Amino acid sequence: MAILAKLSHSLTSIIKKTNLYYVAATIVLCCTFYVIGLWPQGGDVTSRQLSSTASILPTFPCNPSIKNTNPNYGSSISIDFTAHHTADDLVPLSSSARVNHYPSCNPELSEYTPCEDSKRSLNFDRNMLVYRERHCPEKNELLKCRIPAPFGYKPPFRWPQSRDSVWYANVPHKHLTVEKAGQNWVRFKGDRFTFPGGGTMFPRGADAYIDDIGKLIKLKDGSIRTAIDTGCGVASWGAYLLSRDILPISFAPKDTHEAQVQFALERGVPALIGILATNRLPYPARAFDMAHCSRCLIPWGKYDGLYLIEVDRILRPGGYWILSGPPVNWQGHWRGWNRTADDLKAEQDQIENVARSLCWKKVTQRGDLAIWQKPTNHVHCKINRKVFRKPPFCQEQDPDKAWYTKIDSCLSPLPEVSSVKDVAGGPLANWPERLTTVPPRIASSSIEGVTAEGFSEDTELWKKRVAHYKALDSQLAERGRYRNILDMNAWLGGFAAALVDDPVWVMNIVPTEAEVNTLGVIFERGLIGTYQSWCEAMSTYPRTYDFIHADSVFTLYQDRCEMEDILLEIDRVLRPQGSAIIRDDVDVLVNVKSILDGLQWESRMVDHEGGPHVREKLLIATKLYWTAPAPGQDKQ
């Protein structure tokens, strides 16, 4: 027992001594590392260490305002946890990374419209006005230069003043002021054009003319929201519809009435260059609540009613077609129209017969106005085919397909209904509820991959995104700064819907290359748009838009066409001092930014609203102000 007690005492002594050694060693090591930690801050080792480290690590531009001005820096250091490297730092800014600058085009091309070029059109058939349809240049004919604004170009008047006034320098054409002098289309005085609101068939003005229409059909209850004006002149009818919460698209060809669509766009009215010839209009079926022609010179009764068949395709069930001018009320006007009474009566009879064959109902004819209504379904119309064998119903065709698609001489059938009282395709809510109500195409599961829940989520998502955009772009946030807006890849129209309370209109594009055709949904929301392939130029004049939004456009067109050609088109249709927000993958935006540098735009890349770890980024870009030189002056 004594031996065990002695052994236990010895072991206890050894353990205590060992613990003391460990404690001492730990104290020595802590002091050593503390000294080592202090030593580099006061010696020359720092610069040598940093220089050797810099040689193997990538450098980033840090905030130059953060400087070490404290002599006791090591003892009073403040740690900053905020991010100092943003998406913009990823962009190669060296000159070797930039493309060559794109030169200015000849000033004579200041109104160049590539797909409606008057010289190229001479190569095409004049029958049925084929030569005035879209005919785009071949790839080897594409311009690689920037379209200049005319000398003296000014930012347009802000809406609603722009409805009545346009700077002469922006559209230097007085032809219409002479040709239409007696019809109050447009007047010229001093440095600007003014638009009294007159038209060939509404000498009292477009406002009074629309009031006359409003006495015949309901224009104020929100049931009519989208409208199309065929052969629009300077778009006064559309301009005055806007104050009634009716959103029009006006179109006219690029013809002897020089710059009529350009005037419309400068006034801040939605418009496109277009014509009813052999191709379908670039809109889906059942798009418009109302179609209008005021002496538009379209031969409605010819070609077995082909053009009225096309109007029927784009009118929604229950939609209206309004006609004024020849041959309506021919009995009172035939002498002034320099046509025989028999000729005008025959034309009126042709139109009436075609309308009946389409199962349209003539609502009224009062004075110079005649109005027809499309049926809400085709239940009775299918029975009527026993009487009206022409046009037959189309078989196995897509009524929404409308990009270089020939007009069919057959009647596009409406969706089936279970009752004669049902609205084919589903009823539309009145405006403004229509904007956020689930569109019938989605409610009926006609749009692949889109549900009612997904639609609502998309609407909320774009509200947040647009709020973020306005925080990034002060001009977008400034009410009235922008008027004409283009969304190059609109999907369900959520971007436009989020801007509905701003004094803007948005042309929503559904690219023809998109996997899902959603343009019908956009129209069912009470918005407007068109089809477009961005491998080609748009049917519009240079400097049409104040702001352009491009969501994943360049990813969509990878391996389809050249990025620089799309950006040159954006440069063509955007006004000087206009802006764009381009959202896409960061690698794509690096290349986009380098080309925009070559176009002499200002641009900056910022992080996605979800934070810096999202690969998708935003490029905020502004086209700088520049114009063609003064006449006779050498280009600088």
UniProtKB/TrEMBL annotation:
GO cellular component: endoplasmic reticulum membrane; endosome; trans-Golgi network
Topology in membrane: Single-pass type II membrane protein
Localization of this protein: Endoplasmic reticulum membrane; Membrane
Molecular functions (GO terms): methyltransferase activity
Domain of life from the UniProt record: Eukaryota
SUPFAM superfamilies, per the entry: S-adenosyl-L-methionine-dependent methyltransferases
Keywords: Glycoprotein, Membrane, Methyltransferase, Signal-anchor, Transferase, Transmembrane, Transmembrane helix
Keyword Transmembrane helix (UniProt): yes
Listed Pfam families: Methyltransf_29
An annotated GO BP: methylation
Keyword Zinc-finger: no
Annotated transmembrane regions: 20-39
EC number(s) given by UniProt: 2.1.1.-
Family listed: Belongs to the methyltransferase superfamily.
Protein name per the record: Methyltransferase
Organism: Solanum verrucosum
Phylogenetic classification of the source organism: Eukaryota, Viridiplantae, Streptophyta, Embryophyta, Tracheophyta
